[in-house]
Design a protein that fits this description.
Layout: H1 2-41, E1 45-51, H2 62-71, H3 77-88, H4 111-132, E2 142-146, H5 156-164, E3 171-175, H6 182-196, E4 201-207, H7 220-228, E5 233-239, E6 250-259, H8 264-267, E7 270-274, E8 280-284, H9 288-307, H10 310-321, E9 336-339, H11 344-354, H12 362-371, H13 378-388, E10 397-404, E11 408-416
Helix pairs in contact: 2-3, 3-7, 4-5, 9-11, 12-13
Length: 445
């Protein structure tokens, strides 16, 4: 009996140990499975995007813009001469467009016309993007819009929800006052929302309304905006669904935001305010390019360690130790660059700061030439250009760089995860064979 009891205890001990090990293995497998699912669900995929292509009858060649300045009986001769000089050197070609209200003499900034411009741009690109991928509007879970200087009531997202019949429980946010960098900022907000709301689709809308923002005073710092901005917009479809990886174009790898608003010079470099005669406009300070350079350096100091190879990081640290200036070779980290098309001087300054060549800034220069400064959507027109040229290949990394009031510099890094079709129709398809072209330093009119 005693021997049988010992055997039973031994068997019980073996069984208990076996069950304990089995529970441990099962718990480990379950934990790994949970971690795998969590890590996979944190990926943000860019399914597709659409850029607005204005109709040809809204084109504003330099000669037409100059004629409007002269005929609208708003500006004195000194203001006209200044705007003519800027237009001639703006690098914006004859295909860039303005909304119908700006073709009137004098331009009409009425609220209903601003709403018409907003609806024309956004309704067109949303319909194009959703129909292309056979997406029911009610399947959109998150909606984010940004338009810096036009903030109507109801909001822009409400206008879109009403038009397309989105669900009543959609998470919607309308951003304003965020400047030209708001396109990437909106992606950042959508990314954060997608981290919280699993298995979701997000639609991001970026544009600037030109209609209500013409300046009619004499301050040269404010007259600049009359010559640079044109109509445009972009719709971007994001997802955190694992199954959408199969149809997505890109994966978001990094997003870095820099805000220098605590510095007075940076804060006041782009400001909407009334001039001495009460005319409201957006003033661009002479320090703008220097401020943009400072913001870019602060931004890449955070982005660099995330994307640069260790050899470049070592060189940078060594140069810092020796108190020498060394600009890392970002071309070793990125295949393509989408620099905000804020103006020729902005593109030149970024190329110089990052030691890039003219080919690296081609998409930005051609976007500025054909579409003008479309504000927050310009980086999407640039990526659209690269796609139309068939240059984006699977595995390529793209760096989008946005600048805006505040002062802000935002970076988004995308990795191409599919084989793109260069013949797929987009905003550049109709005339891509004409580009790149030589942009004259001074336009003849």
């Amino acid at each position: 009996m005693e021997l049988m009891g010992d055997a039973s205890l031994t068997n019980l001990f073996i069984i208990t140990e076996y069950l304990t090990n089995l529970h441990f293995v099962a718990a480990t497998i379950l934990l790994l499975a949970i971690l795998y699912i969590c890590l996979r669900s944190n990926q943000i995929y860019l399914i597709d995007f659409s850029c607005y292509l204005p109709p040809d009858h809204l084109r504003v060649p330099v000669s037409t813009l100059i004629e409007h300045f002269q005929c609208c009986n708003v500006f004195d001769q000194d203001s006209i001469d200044f705007q003519v000089k800027v237009c001639e050197r703006s690098s914006i070609g004859s295909e860039a467009c303005m909304p119908a209200a700006m073709h009137q003499i004098p331009p009409d900034p009425a609220l209903n016309l601003a709403q018409e411009e907003t609806q024309m741009v956004l309704f067109t690109i949303i319909k194009e993007l959703l129909s292309k991928h056979h997406i029911n509007p009610k399947s959109i879970d998150i909606l984010v819009s940004n338009c810096s200087l036009f903030c109507p009531t109801p909001s822009i997202t409400s206008i879109v929800i009403n038009k397309f019949g989105f669900r009543s429980n959609i998470k919607s946010v309308s951003l304003s006052g965020m400047g030209c960098s708001a396109g990437i900022l909106s992606i950042s907000l959508a990314k954060d929302l997608l981290k919280v709301h699993k298995n979701s689709l997000a639609l991001v809308l970026s544009m600037e309304a030109v209609t209500p923002n013409g300046y009619t005073g004499k301050a040269k710092s404010m007259l600049l905006t009359n010559t640079l901005f044109r109509m445009g917009g972009a719709a971007v479809l994001l997802s955190n669904k694992r199954e959408d990886k199969l149809r997505a174009k890109y994966k978001l790898e990094h997003l870095v935001r820099t805000h220098l608003g605590s510095d007075d010079q940076s804060y006041s470099s782009v400001v909407q305010e009334p001039d001495c005669e009460g005319h409201v406009g957006v003033a661009l300070s002479r320090a703008l390019l220097r401020v943009a350079g400072n913001a870019l350096r602060a931004n890449i100091s955070e982005l660099g360690p995330k994307v640069l190879p260790y050899s470049e990081q070592a060189r940078y640290l060594w140069s810092s130790f020796r108190k020498r200036v060394y600009v890392p070779a970002f071309k070793k980290a990125f295949k393509h660059f989408c620099i905000h098309a804020g103006g020729r001087a902005v593109i030149d300054a970024v190329e110089e700061n990052l030691k890039l060549n003219k080919d690296d800034g081609e998409a930005s220069r051609m976007t500025l030439y054909r579409f003008g400064n479309t504000s927050s959507s310009s980086v999407w027109y640039e990526l659209c250009y690269l796609e139309a040229k068939g240059r984006v290949k699977k595995g390529d990394r793209i760096w989008q760089i946005g600048f805006g009031s505040g002062f802000k510099c935002n970076s988004a890094v995308w990795k191409c995860i599919s084989n793109l079709e260069p013949d797929m129709e987009n905003a550049w398809s109709d005339r891509i064979h004409l580009y790149p072209m030589e942009v004259p330093y001074v336009f003849d009119h």
